[in-house]
Every structure is written in structure tokens, then in C-alpha cells.
Protein 1
Amino acid sequence: QVNLLQSRAALVKPGASVKLSCKASGYTFTDYYIHWVKQSHGKSLEWIGYINPNSGYTNYNEKFKSKATLTVDKSTNTAYMELSRLTSEDSATYYCTGVRGFAYWGQGTLVTVSS
Amino acid sequence: DIVMTQSPSSLAVSAGETVTINCKSSQSLLSSGNQKNYLAWYQQKPGQSPKLLIYLASTRESGVPDRFIGSGSGTDFTLTISSVQAEDLADYYCQQHYSYPPTFGAGTKLELK
């Protein structure tokens, strides 16, 4: 069964960076893109971008191009998203999702930006 | 970017009622090549991740009860939940994946009356 297991919640200081992980299992990792989605508290969903695990090709939402960097490690079937120069606006739950588009979702990682 | 407009923003229902959630896109989501509408519906319960219910406007994801029905084409879409059950109380989002970036509606909160 497909499973996307995300890293635990993170508390980070303003101006710092954080790297989130998403470990895939139950399918061939290189067969499907991994997408990342942001959900601020009580708000809707925003697509950040995707990475093709096979080629490493990335496609970002223009809004997040200077904020997020997507990478993968094929040896461990893990996708990563690094968020840089964090502000309070980046406090949110971040999801990885994939397989046939957005059919499967990780459990989410809550990022809190606070001094 | 394609803007997705959902209505209503919230809906109070009693168990057993039929409810309709609407979603309108700022551009057509109908592919002229294959005549498919690239519109999906998600359910999100409190504290949980979104769950895919419907894709290609009207195809139910495996395991989704048949009381969830997606319809519509072009720019106007509907999610109908017949005979609402207590377990259906959640937030519902439409999403277009016709063009990048994929965009979501603002959501509809389904609550108990």
C-alpha cells in the first residue's frame, strides 16, 4: 500500500531555513511526481511545486520560487523540501502528495516560525 | 493562474439530507484532445490530510462511497452528497489540474445543523 511518511513538526526561528522530508513506500518511487502543498491554519491549499524523482526536474509555483527548493534521494525513496528565509507567513502545515496526481497524501508537517 | 470559486463557504445539514457544493473555474477545464475535465474534489476532516474523492470531474476514487457524485463540464462543476452521514462532516475542496499551477477552491465547510 502506498504510504508517504513526512518528518515531524518543526519550530524554527525567523530568518532560518528548514528541510522537510517525505519518505515514499508501496510503489516505484520514480514512476510518479512528488508534489508539495501548503495549508495555512484554517485556510485552503496552495500548490508549491513538484519534482520528478526520476530526472530531478522541478516545476515551481511562481509564488514559491524563491522560497522552496525540492530535491530527492532515489537511494532512500525520499523527497525533500527546503524552505528558506522563514517568516511568520511560512507558518503552516506542508503536505507531500503524489501517485496519479494527488491521490495519496502524507500526514503533513507543521512548521511554526517563531523566535 | 486559473481561479477556482467555490460556493457556499459553509453548509449546515441534517443527517440524511442531500447537499450540493458548487465550483466554478475562471477558464474551461475541458481538454479538447480527450474531452476530459481536469477537476478533482477532496475531503479534509479536522486534523487529517486531504483525501481524494473524485477526479476527472466525475470518476470516484477507489473506496469512495457512491453517495458522492461529481458532475459538470467546462467551467461549472458540482459535488453532490446524497443522504449525508455524520462521517461526511468535513471541509471539501475543488481543484483544477488542467494547467500549472494547480489551484484549489477556498473550501466548503459541511457542518451539522
Protein 2
Amino acid sequence: GAVVSQHPSRVICKSGTSVKIECRSLDFQATTMFWYRQFPKKSLMLMATSNEGSKATYEQGVEKDKFLINHASLTLSTLTVTSAHPEDSSFYICSASWGTGTQTQYFGPGTRLLVL
Amino acid sequence: AQSVTQLDSQVPVFEEAPVELRCNYSSSVSVYLFWYVQYPNQGLQLLLKYLSGSTLVESINGFEAEFNKSQTSFHLRKPSVHISDTAEYFCAVTPRGFQKLVFGTGTRLLVSP
């Protein structure tokens, strides 16, 4: 149980275009979803937290207009990288959790974005 | 605020040898503690967690970790590693009552024959 999927697993785009990444909880309802960015050989950096039906809460230094997050349902959250540039190239990972008592996050397999 | 320190960026070890991956944390409040494993080009998988109760927690694949409050540590151990254990291991904490995970920088475990 507690499976989280991401689509696409890998995407290459031209500079200036927008890219949408989907994160789905397959066998549970995710009240909260998280988006992380992982730089090569570095740890995960939390970008934002989203609760279903609410606006996402962004971490300091993350541009909300550049990284649009939508959590439209209890099983789907999307991250849209708008007007992507080469410096946005990274590994983006989502996670999901449910309920108010548990603190366990279940992670998706990640999406590797390459902006040319 | 919380922080996590993983002292070793890389730990090479021979197959069937024991291993310990170190994790220390800093927090002014009580925390939950986690170990996640990341295989190449994959997302993170939960290995084990400490929420409350017994300070020694175990995973299904032979890893264990012990919460030591006085030393603010949560070291991960395995008595005999396999080649398939080669991966990146992340220690993480979150304050009780919150869901914001703070990760360490990771330790790459390299198991060789």
C-alpha cells in the first residue's frame, strides 16, 4: 500500500516553455502533498506543501509564480514549471501523506527535468 | 528549527560486513525520525521510522536504528550487508505535530564483493 506515482519520469524541454508534472496517490487519499527538488549529490529541498483544495504553502526562496502547484483532488497534485530555464533542470520528487495523526510521507519515483 | 547531520557522505564496505550509517539531529522540540533509501534514478522509499515507544526500530530487510535522545542520534545499522544494499540513505526528522521533513545530506553506501 501507500503507492505514489509521478508522470512523466523524464522530460526534456526547450528554454521558455512550461512543463507540468503530475503526482498521484494510487491507493490512498492524500490530504497533503509535498514537492521537493533534489540537486545532484545533494539532499532534498522542500519546495512547497499543498493541501487538497487550498493554496500551496511555498518555502522561502521558492518562486510561487514560477513553480505553480495545484492540488485539485485527494489523489492528484501537479507542479508546473513555467518559462523553464536551464537552471531549473533538476530531479523533482513529490510525496504524499494522509490524516492528521501520521507523519509518514510516501514518495513518488521522481521526475527528471532537463531544460535545453 | 531542526537540522540533520549525516557525518559520512560515503561509506564503502565489503559484502557481508556490518555497517553503521550515522545520523545526528538538532531540535528544540520533540521529533519523529526517519530513514529513507534511494536507489539510482528512483524516488525515496521509507526504510524505518521512530514515532514513539521502543527506541529500537527495525525494517523488513535487516536494517535497524536506535533513537538516542541524550545523544540526539538515530544511527542506522545492519549486521551483514548485501550488494543490493548499495544506495543513498537519507536521515530525516520532523517536529511532532508537523509534517515538514528536514533531510540530511545523505550517505552513499557502496557494497562491494
Protein 3
Amino acid sequence: DVKVTQSSRYLVKRTGEKVFLECVQDMDHENMFWYRQDPGLGLRLIYFSYDVKMKEKGDIPEGYSVSREKKERFSLILESASTNQTSMYLCASGLAGASEQYFGPGTRLTVT
Amino acid sequence: DAKTTQPTSMDCAEGRAANLPCNHSTISGNEYVYWYRQIHSQGPQYIIHGLKNNETNEMASLIITEDRKSSTLILPHATLRDTAVYYCIVRRRRGSNYKLTFGKGTLLTVNP
């Protein structure tokens, strides 16, 4: 079974803090993704990575950065958290060239 | 990605088969039908995909009509844990656009 884990299920941070969300997959997938999901807005892609040290911006990269130093690990960084980044953050992974994506349990981030 | 239409909600009795329909009349020849589901407060879960033949795995069966304009996801013996929003997506299997976009999906409620 594919396993995608995320570092926290729930996180509360203050405005202006730097926030790290980590994602690890154990299936040797080339592709990894970060989405956020908000009521009424659906799933929106923040960044994805198709290889170690490679990344591409998704639809809403502003205010976020990512890091992929190892194949199994993909980190999302909020440089200076703001209240409008309160959301459910979902990490996913998948094989290169395939459309199936396997999601982690999500991190519900609240920025106060 | 081709547009899909699903009912907003459906009910099913526990232990019975749940049949979830999806219309995708504008599907093109190289597009697959994918199904995901999302249980409340969890990450989406990949279920199954198919091109034109019927497919079955340990979770569900996928029946695609001969003209490929519609499909049905079948959960053969629904349990309470199958209560979730089910998303039908039509997309190419291989391509540079990896972003997943979910529509509103069908909320399946399995009743005891």
C-alpha cells in the first residue's frame, strides 16, 4: 500500500511565524504535490516536484516555497504565515507520467 | 480535462451495492475516467481508473459504457465507512498537466 504521511494533523501558528509542513512517501514516487483545500474553492495546487531539487509552481504559489532534497520528502514552507493561509494542506505523490495521485491525511493549519 | 456531471447526493443502505453515476459526454479518445473519494476531514483517496474496459479492484468496480460517455462506480457491499464525497474525473493518463481538479462530487451517505 502507498503510504503518504504528513508531519502534523493539526497546527496552530501565529501571524508572521515561519511554518514548515513536511510530507514523506514510501513508494519511490517521482512526483510530489502540495495542495490546499478550502470550502467552496476545492483543491488548489501550490507547488509540485517531479524530481529531487526540481519544482514547479502551481496555481497559488505566492507566500509559499518548497524543498525537495530527498526523493521521499517534500516540504512546504510558509515564509511568514498570514491568516489567509489558514487551510487544510494536502500532500500527494505519484509515479512519473501517471495521473493517479496518493494523498496524505492532511494538515489543518490555523494562523491566528 | 473533460467536464463531468455527478448527482449532488445519494443514499445507500449498509450491505447493499452503491452505484454512483458520472456523465462525461465530451470525453476524448485518450482520456481516462478516474474516481477518488474524500472522507470527511481526511485526504482524498484514489479508488480506480479505466479507459474503456470495465475494471475491478479490491475497493470497487468501474463500468464504462460502450460509447464512453458515462460510467458507474460500484461499491459492492457498502459499509458506514464508505460515507464520503466521491469525485469522478476525466483526464489523460500521461501529460505535463499533473494538477488534479475536483468538481463538487457526489456525497454518498451509507445508512445503517
